[in-house]
Amino acid sequence: MSNRPLAAAGRSVPLLRAGLIAGIVLAAVAYPLAAVTGLGAKATAHAVEHKTNILRTALPAETSYLYAPDGTTILTMFYEEYRQYTKLSDMSPNIQQAIVAAEDNRFYQHRGVDPKGVARAFVANTRSSGVSQGASTLTMQYVRMALRDSAQTPQEVQEAIQQTSLRKVKEMRMALDIEKELTKDQILERYLNSAYFGHRAYGIYAAAQIFFSKTPATLTPVEAATLAGLVKSPSEYDPLSSDQKEATGRRNYVLDKMTQLGYLSPDAAAVAKSEPIRTRPTTPANDCAAIPDKYNTWGFACDYVKNWWSAQPAFGENRLERMDKLRRGGYRIVLSLDPKVQAAAETNVGAKDRVDSPFANGIVVAEPGTGRIKAMAVNRTYSLDVSENGPSSNPEADPKMKANYPNTVAPLLGGGTLPGYQAGSTFKMFPMLAALDAGMPLSTAFDSPYRYKSAVYDGWAPSNASAAMTGRQTMWSGFGKSVNTYFVQLEEKIGADRGVHLAEQLGLRWRTDVDKEQASPTKAKKWGAFTLGVSDATPLEMANAYAAIAADGRYCEAMPVNSITNRDGTPATYKTAGGIEREVAKPRCRQVVNADAARAATDAARCPTGDTPAKGTCGGWSTADSVRGTVGRPVAGKTGTTDSTRSAWFVGYTPELAAASFIADPDNPFNAVGDGQSQVPVNAVAQTLRDGLKGTPTRQFTPPSDAIVG
């Protein structure tokens, strides 16, 4: 049956008077200058025309979806107003007919403003000395909702909904103009995608889901009439309330209207009215804490997507605008995690075990050459509920402060505002890479005593972890054994500031006041301790920095997504400083050091893992010689521990993947993990690389040139 109602027959005498009144009102609508005077009138006319132009293309806010890497599994949604735009052809005729019957039974007769409705409301309101009846058509209501949805400021929102005669006149004028631009079906489609039905359901898709757990295409006459009845007053006619009396009465009113308009037969309406309202409510997921339990550990990656998004200029000029875009823009976001690698990471850090320990063991895996994040896991449950967490291990914290375990949503792996953890000797990579890039060969040798007093760094005298490291070392042996006194001398030769600058180029950021001061141009040259990893870093940063070395010196910004598409299915894009349009989710890479320098650094970095370098010798022993046997393929990396083993690290990589793991107490950096746990991150990385790459072809590292070997 057509959505258009049967024509009403006959005219009553009072309607003649109403028609006269309506004609006067329409004259004012057609020529709004009659309602205002002078320059204000001209400004009003221009404002109406401008807003009408906006409404021609305006679309309501729409929910954004985060998908698993398969592109079909929905992990969660982001919204302030739960809504998914639905075409009229995908809506049941029942809801189209019900909304016309409930809100504007002359929708198909008028041209945006209903003279009879205006007259009827005028008479009723005059008699009641107040506002007892409205005259808004579906088109006028759509105009109001579209102005609200497209508002950029609180003032514009207020102007769109305020109860004033001037607002009404503008609304009527725009409704008349819109009807010249859009068909009735287009207006009805937009209306049904904009209307508010209660329970944060904006638009018919959300309403059908929230109240009946179904799609708009399958709504029955009873369900459609129930939903259409909500638009007038969502709270008063709420069918999810314990007392459905008001909701049932309103539904029956809509069914009667549908019968009067010829949409339902009297018998069908009678049967429908005899039925109770059978709701089947659904609470749609919203934000990262709502990720299904099956994917709970992916919550940390979801959280990183949000933090990453908030820093992307493509989505707005500031964090507020960007997050508003996420919750209203209708984006389709596909996560970059590799399920196989993620599962390996989760297993090897105990991510799914209930951990009763203040020490967090986390891992991040990045893909060399793209920067895509393939795994993020930590031995914590991603949850906002910290009621069962014990007290913080930080003695200076408020006694009521909860610990970070077993539940937390803190960005322990990076990407947020937390400074991270001292990364120890993993930082030796930066001065070594800077030296190689400056032309110093791998064979560069220094006599490395147990303790070395630096004249460059004002008498600072660091020592080695063991007397067994004493002797003449090269980059291979110095890196493999992690000889502090070798790297202080190497740093003296190239300048500590060059190592600091290179770390910054590889994505590291300084977040504590101390680190910011030491990394500043005036202090960096004297930051000798930089090579020993006294600065805080996150596993996200370290995995991505080492991934650049695996990619022959090509650094790619960390990327937590495979794709982002707009609501119309086109890729989300941004313009570079040079005016070039690029996809937001495409890798953003640049060559930071020359390829030969990176290959040379990798050759030295094979020594700590028990692997055999292509060109040199490792000096007989190394700090993590079990890694090569565990991974079962060429692998490079570096261990790192801090004073008193307050934290322990390992960053390892193959040509395919780079992984960084740490163990530390996020609440109290002075709570030492102890030497006994220094092997934990080594095992986590080695086992994750092994399991994540199982079944894939073995790739070899490209050897450095003879020129850089020396």
Automatic annotation (TrEMBL):
The keyword Nucleotide-binding does not apply. It holds the Pfam family Transpeptidase. Residues 75-258 form the Glycosyl transferase family domain. Residues 363-666 form the Penicillin-binding protein transpeptidase domain. Coiled coil: none annotated. It comes from the Bacteria. GO terms for cellular component: outer membrane-bounded periplasmic space. It catalyses: Preferential cleavage: (Ac)2-L-Lys-D-Ala-|-D-Ala. Also transpeptidation of peptidyl-alanyl moieties that are N-acyl substituents of D-alanine; [GlcNAc-(1->4)-Mur2Ac(oyl-L-Ala-gamma-D-Glu-L-Lys-D-Ala-D-Ala)](n)-di-trans,octa-cis-undecaprenyl diphosphate + beta-D-GlcNAc-(1->4)-Mur2Ac(oyl-L-Ala-gamma-D-Glu-L-Lys-D-Ala-D-Ala)-di-trans,octa-cis-undecaprenyl diphosphate = [GlcNAc-(1->4)-Mur2Ac(oyl-L-Ala-gamma-D-Glu-L-Lys-D-Ala-D-Ala)](n+1)-di-trans,octa-cis-undecaprenyl diphosphate + di-trans,octa-cis-undecaprenyl diphosphate + H(+). One of its GO terms (molecular function) is serine-type D-Ala-D-Ala carboxypeptidase activity. One of its GO terms (biological process) is cell wall organization. In the C-terminal section; belongs to the transpeptidase family. The keyword Mitochondrion does not apply. This is Glycosyl transferase. Keywords: Carboxypeptidase, Cell shape, Cell wall biogenesis/degradation, Glycosyltransferase, Hydrolase, Multifunctional enzyme, Peptidoglycan synthesis, Protease, Transferase.
